[in-house]
């Protein structure tokens, strides 16, 4: 869903600033990093793989003969930037990062004799 949203907004430019491209790339980076924190490196790789699969599917031409990503500066910046953002998100995942719930205070504590 993140890749599809990135495809939808990456071409939005206002006052010379490609805010859609920036939004799509930052979202890809944050989502990959969040997946890494919540599910470890495997989660980040799975998210990046799914995102990359959507990007690969967009490179094929449609029946009408057009493409979802234009072959211009914004299109290539989106494709390359997304792959770089996903790679950074996977590599930047802290080792052993997992979401864990804190121990409840009501848990009985025992001492080993």
| Rg calculated over all Cα atoms | 19 Å
Question: How many H/I helices?
Answer: 3
Low-confidence blocks of residues? none
Total strands: the figure is 0
Instruction: Please bin the fraction of helical residues.
Output: 55-70%
Q: Which series of helices and strands comes N to C?
A: HHH
| Principal-axis shape | elongated
* Overall average residue pLDDT: 83
Give the N-terminus to C-terminus distance in angstroms.
54 Å
Structural class: mainly alpha
Q: How many domains make up the 3D coordinates?
A: 1
What fraction of the residues are assigned to beta strands by DSSP?
Answer: under 5%
Largest sheet: none
Keywords: Membrane, Transmembrane, Transmembrane helix
InterPro entries: DUF6113
Transmembrane segments: 16-35, 42-61, 73-92
Pfam family, one: DUF6113
Overview of the structural elements:
Pfam families: DUF6113. The protein is mainly α. The protein contains 3 helices and no strands.
Structural topology:
Elements lengths: L1 H8 L9 H41 L13 H19 L22
In short:
The chain is an all-alpha fold and 113 residues long. It has helices at residues 2-9, 19-59, 73-91. The chain has one domain (2-91).
Descriptive keywords:
113 residues; elongated; single chain; mainly alpha
